[in-house]
């Protein structure tokens, strides 16, 4: 059971691989794998395209996503079962994920090393000390879990014996997490173990407060773990900022140039997370990371653990100079902070640190030590946040009309219970039309996917369901092409509509500027087309009286000049009266002050026209059919009016919200 | 000793992990959410509270006092006891669409509400509920229209709809009324339903009387149905079959409907219609507006759906004069 026995057997010539080397290889492997999965997340059938790569694997290994979505939805979507593997190993070994697997952790560890390698021994020790402020991450975890837990107040979660049992167990798990964060009298700032009755009472009070708040009808539970959960954080940063700005791993063609809405914020936060390692090694992991907090709580009493052999320890503090988790190995390793970096094992000259399943009292400490007051405040804060955000009504009557979600997105309330803001849908979208929201969908919708029809290389592609297939949490539910297009068994239900296009007749070329266009109609991908045209006649020149014969079979129209958009007249007519009979003759040629008609010569003008003459243009003007339009926005993307397009999609009529329906 | 302890610990951890997997697996959802929320139950219409009257009984009372006219018309039909019994839970569907005073005729008159409640009480009804899902703010509507006062005075229950009082309901053969949120909390428990509405001009539908009054049982964005208003009124007529229709033409709103807003929009037509056939009531109401009932397409649709008959020859008509 003791991994350091090899060294005892062969203390001088270390020919066998040291545990730290194994750990570094593991970190490098998972880091590269993570980058690789990110890079191949693009449409295509090549080896460097998505093909069968399990590109969501890291997101699925993440138990915070799993736990939080189970709280919000009562289900664990397919691949999220991977989290059970992580959890199982964590129960046995502690926070191995942080020190051995997490790519974000590996990045922080490397950056921390770069910064701190040349510092003095004393300074290194100082920066690796445990601090009560490391409890911040447990507070953040409890806030997020509190937000998610509001969903348990939904009556549907207690509607059958099975769901009652499940929800009961979830509540117990939540309580266990909360109690785990409370002082146990053995952390860095030891306090007496607290009265369990008092704790239970407080828990009950928390719950009651939550239930009262959850009576508010608009928001029961929100998933916000994705804001700080390191896997979605890193995935999002790579997907939305790092790869696009480096031009690496981008899709072929015009879609390869990607735009990112709010890139400044994403980039700043990523840079901040990385450069905080200048202050303290693994700053993010120690202070911020809610996943680390969850794993720390779960792995605070692992089967195998680091412990200190007091008789051997000379308190030289060499271990603390290299300790990755700031877990105080020279006293008693705080197991909720230990990332299993194993540096202490290697650096201890006395072999006073050991990794063992043996239990000796006082040789290691569980930690963490969040004060009860802080823990309760965090949970209640989280519980309250969801209904308070819901008060804005953004998931109800006050919905933001320009938030057009990808096809297959669940109704907004359910969507916000699942989306972890990982940016996978944004990344896989072949056109780049999916963008991370900034504040458009409310603060709770930060970095959730919305369609921006000016950002992509096209609108939402009619024959594509990529975003719905990749979403790791089914916030965008899985769609078949048949269901998306309303074909086959889905004929009755009709296509999935994400919005409706409206023609702005004040900006549309044929409607407002008397010029032919109908690019939108031409590009409408549904069959029969959702954009049809209505014939209209626009008068482009008018003269009160007569028209006279000119030379060269021309008719003189003093003051007329052809519109600048057409060198040759097309669908342009002279509308006039000859012999009291109204007629419309096609104009075949024109110039300043004259026109030429098809087959009508000056000789035909006897006795000459009476009444007004007009030059008229036949125009096809676009009109949208709300039953057929799916809101794909290809029309908006193609509209030649580029700034504020003359045809624009908004979220009316989307199928995911029957109450926003417009077409009968 | 150490080995034994380790085995014991190992078993403990193993059991914990097994429990974790069991729990995790119980939540597993391999196909993900579908198109609709399976948890939401809907109820299926039609909702038929109509009395077994053939031919339909129609009473037309002349007068200016609504209470007296109601009493005379009901007497002509054989009294309220013919329609409401001692065990009945009666739902009175008023038209409280707008927050406007009773004198303007945009809403069901409180005198009529009061009279109906008293008649139902005399007939021994167990419970009497008055409700509507108005267009303007519900509380303001009930208060300003005088309906709230009338309900309290006569001793019934006013049901002000809240967001949780709607449930999806469907007319199976309907095209528009499929899985649509409706004010089920108000009408579903009822054993008898009385539709009581004023005669009003209505720009979109032509006239708003008994059948148009059913709109007030719809929730959701019901105004999308204005695109096809006659079809939806026809479907409403098929979905809701009242025990009695009470159409108030003592005054009729002849212009600027359905809101009115001025006394000059009203005309004294001095007629109150009580009918077991809602279509018949609307045919008579159209005449008060000077309209040809055949120009109201929803009446033909309602008739085709079996909700009543437009043909006066098939009614049993009682004409009375209120004292």
From TrEMBL, chain A:
<feature type="transmembrane region" description="Helical">
    <location>
        <begin position="21"/>
        <end position="44"/>
    </location>
</feature>
<keyword id="KW-0812">Transmembrane</keyword>
<keyword id="KW-0479">Metal-binding</keyword>
<dbReference type="GO" id="GO:0051539">
    <property type="term" value="F:4 iron, 4 sulfur cluster binding"/>
</dbReference>
<feature type="transmembrane region" description="Helical">
    <location>
        <begin position="259"/>
        <end position="278"/>
    </location>
</feature>
<keyword id="KW-0004">4Fe-4S</keyword>
<dbReference type="GO" id="GO:0046872">
    <property type="term" value="F:metal ion binding"/>
</dbReference>
<dbReference type="InterPro" id="IPR017900">
    <property type="entry name" value="4Fe4S_Fe_S_CS"/>
</dbReference>
<dbReference type="GO" id="GO:0005886">
    <property type="term" value="C:plasma membrane"/>
</dbReference>
<feature type="domain" description="4Fe-4S ferredoxin-type">
    <location>
        <begin position="447"/>
        <end position="482"/>
    </location>
</feature>
<dbReference type="Pfam" id="PF00037">
    <property type="entry name" value="Fer4"/>
</dbReference>
<feature type="domain" description="4Fe-4S ferredoxin-type">
    <location>
        <begin position="329"/>
        <end position="358"/>
    </location>
</feature>
<dbReference type="InterPro" id="IPR051684">
    <property type="entry name" value="Electron_Trans/Redox"/>
</dbReference>
<feature type="transmembrane region" description="Helical">
    <location>
        <begin position="134"/>
        <end position="152"/>
    </location>
</feature>
<keyword id="KW-1133">Transmembrane helix</keyword>
<feature type="transmembrane region" description="Helical">
    <location>
        <begin position="64"/>
        <end position="85"/>
    </location>
</feature>
<protein>
    <submittedName>
        <fullName>4Fe-4S binding domain-containing protein</fullName>
    </submittedName>
</protein>
<feature type="transmembrane region" description="Helical">
    <location>
        <begin position="197"/>
        <end position="216"/>
    </location>
</feature>
<keyword id="KW-0408">Iron</keyword>
<feature type="domain" description="4Fe-4S ferredoxin-type">
    <location>
        <begin position="409"/>
        <end position="439"/>
    </location>
</feature>
<keyword id="KW-0472">Membrane</keyword>
<feature type="transmembrane region" description="Helical">
    <location>
        <begin position="164"/>
        <end position="185"/>
    </location>
</feature>
Automatic annotation (TrEMBL), chain B:
<dbReference type="InterPro" id="IPR007160">
    <property type="entry name" value="DUF362"/>
</dbReference>
<feature type="domain" description="DUF362">
    <location>
        <begin position="90"/>
        <end position="286"/>
    </location>
</feature>
<dbReference type="Pfam" id="PF04015">
    <property type="entry name" value="DUF362"/>
</dbReference>
<protein>
    <submittedName>
        <fullName>Uncharacterized conserved protein, DUF362 family</fullName>
    </submittedName>
</protein>
């Amino acid at each position: 059971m003791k991994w350091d026995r090899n060294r005892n057997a062969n203390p001088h010539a270390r020919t066998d691989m040291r545990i730290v080397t194994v750990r570094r290889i593991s970190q490098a492997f998972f880091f590269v794998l993570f980058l690789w999965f990110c890079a191949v997340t693009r449409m295509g059938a090549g080896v460097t395209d998505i093909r069968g790569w399990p590109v969501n694997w890291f997101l699925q290994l993440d138990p915070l996503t799993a736990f939080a979505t189970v709280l919000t939805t009562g289900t664990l979507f397919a691949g999220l079962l991977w989290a059970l593997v992580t959890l199982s190993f964590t129960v046995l070994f502690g926070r191995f994920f942080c020190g051995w697997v997490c790519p974000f952790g590996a990045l922080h560890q490397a950056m921390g090393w770069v910064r701190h390698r040349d510092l003095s021994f004393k300074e290194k020790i100082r920066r690796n000390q445990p601090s009560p402020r490391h409890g911040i991450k447990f507070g953040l975890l409890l806030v997020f879990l509190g937000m998610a837990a509001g969903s348990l107040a939904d009556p549907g979660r207690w509607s059958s014996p099975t769901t009652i049992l499940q929800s009961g167990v979830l509540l117990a798990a939540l309580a266990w997490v909360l109690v785990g964060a409370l002082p146990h009298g053995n952390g860095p700032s030891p306090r007496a173990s607290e009265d369990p009755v008092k704790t239970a009472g407080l828990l009950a009070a928390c719950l009651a407060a939550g239930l009262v708040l959850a009576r508010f009808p608009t928001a029961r539970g929100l998933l916000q773990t994705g804001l700080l959960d390191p896997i979605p954080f890193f995935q999002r940063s790579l997907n939305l900022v790092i790869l696009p700005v480096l031009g690496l791993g981008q899709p072929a063609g015009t879609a390869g140039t990607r735009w990112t809405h709010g890139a400044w914020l994403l980039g700043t936060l990523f840079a901040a997370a990385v450069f905080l390692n200048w202050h303290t090694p693994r700053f993010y992991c120690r202070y911020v990371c809610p996943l680390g907090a969850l794993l720390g709580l779960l792995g605070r009493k692992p089967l195998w653990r680091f412990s200190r052999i007091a008789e051997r320890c000379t308190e030289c503090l060499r271990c603390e100079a290299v300790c990755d988790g700031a877990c105080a190995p020279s006293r008693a390793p705080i197991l909720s902070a230990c990332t299993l970096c194993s540096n202490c094992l290697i650096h201890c000259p006395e072999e006073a640190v050991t990794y063992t399943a043996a239990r000796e009292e006082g040789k290691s400490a569980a930690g963490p030590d969040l004060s009860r007051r802080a823990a309760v405040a965090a949970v209640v804060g989280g519980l309250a946040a969801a209904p308070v955000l819901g008060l804005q009504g953004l998931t109800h009557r006050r919905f933001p009309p320009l938030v057009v979600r990808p096809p297959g997105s669940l109704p907004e309330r359910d969507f916000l219970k699942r989306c972890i803001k990982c940016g996978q849908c944004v990344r896989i979208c072949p056109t780049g039309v999916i963008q991370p929201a900034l504040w458009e969908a409310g603060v709770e919708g930060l970095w959730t996917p919305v369609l921006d029809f000016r950002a992509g290389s096209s609108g939402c592609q009619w024959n594509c369901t990529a975003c719905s297939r990749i979403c790791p949490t089914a916030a965008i539910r899985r769609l078949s092409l048949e269901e998306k297009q309303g074909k086959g068994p889905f004929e009755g239900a009709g296509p999935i509509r994400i919005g409706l296009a409206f023609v702005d007749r004040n900006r549309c070329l044929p409607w407002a500027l008397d010029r032919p266009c109908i690019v939108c109609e031409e590009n409408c991908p549904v069959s029969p087309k959702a954009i049809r045209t209505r014939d209209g006649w626009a008068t482009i020149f008018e003269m009160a009286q007569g028209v006279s014969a000119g030379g060269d079979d021309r008719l003189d129209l003093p003051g007329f000049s052809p519109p600048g958009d057409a060198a040759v007249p097309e669908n342009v007519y002279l509308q006039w009266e000859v012999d009291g009979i109204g007629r419309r003759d096609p104009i075949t040629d024109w110039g300043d002050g004259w026109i030429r008609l098809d087959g009508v010569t000056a000789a035909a003008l006897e006795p000459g026209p009476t009444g007004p003459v007009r030059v008229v243009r036949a125009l096809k003007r676009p009109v949208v059919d709300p039953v057929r339009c799916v809101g794909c926005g290809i029309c908006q993307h193609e509209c030649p009016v580029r700034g504020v397009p003359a045809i624009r999609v908004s979220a009316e009529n989307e199928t995911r919200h029957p109450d926003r329906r417009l077409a009968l | 000793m150490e080995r034994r302890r380790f085995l014991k610990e190992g078993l403990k951890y193993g059991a914990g992990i097994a429990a974790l997997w069991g729990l995790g697996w119980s939540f597993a959802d391999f196909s993900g959410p579908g198109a609709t929320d399976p948890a939401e139950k809907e109820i299926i219409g039609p909702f038929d509270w109509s009395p077994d009257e053939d031919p339909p009984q129609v009473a037309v009372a002349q007068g200016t006092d609504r209470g007296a006219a109601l009493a005379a018309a009901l007497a002509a039909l054989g009294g309220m006891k013919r329609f409401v019994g001692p065990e009945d839970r009666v739902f009175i569907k008023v038209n409280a669409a707008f927050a406007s005073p009773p004198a303007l005729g945009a809403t069901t008159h409180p005198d009529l509400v009061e009279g109906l409640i008293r008649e139902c009480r005399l007939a021994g009804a167990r419970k009497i509920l008055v409700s509507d899902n108005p267009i303007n703010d519900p509380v303001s509507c009930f208060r300003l229209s005088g309906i709230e006062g009338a309900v309290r005075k006569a001793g019934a229950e006013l049901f002000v709809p809240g967001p949780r009082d709607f449930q999806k309901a469907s007319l199976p053969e309907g095209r528009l009324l499929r899985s649509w949120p409706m004010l089920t909390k108000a009408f579903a428990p009822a054993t008898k339903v009385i539709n009581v509405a004023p005669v009003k001009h209505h720009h979109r539908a032509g006239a708003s009387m008994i059948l148009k009054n059913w709109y007030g049982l719809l929730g959701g964005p019901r105004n999308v149905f204005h695109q096809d208003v006659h079809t939806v009124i026809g479907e409403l007529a098929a979905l809701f079959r009242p025990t009695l229709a009470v159409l108030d033409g003592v005054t009729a709103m002849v212009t600027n409907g359905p809101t009115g807003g001025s006394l000059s929009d009203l005309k004294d037509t001095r007629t109150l219609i009580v009918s077991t056939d809602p279509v018949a009531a609307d045919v008579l109401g159209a005449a008060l507006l000077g309209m040809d009932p055949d120009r109201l397409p929803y009446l033909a649709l309602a008739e085709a759906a079996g909700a009543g008959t437009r043909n006066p020859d098939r009614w049993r008509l009682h004409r009375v004069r209120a004292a």
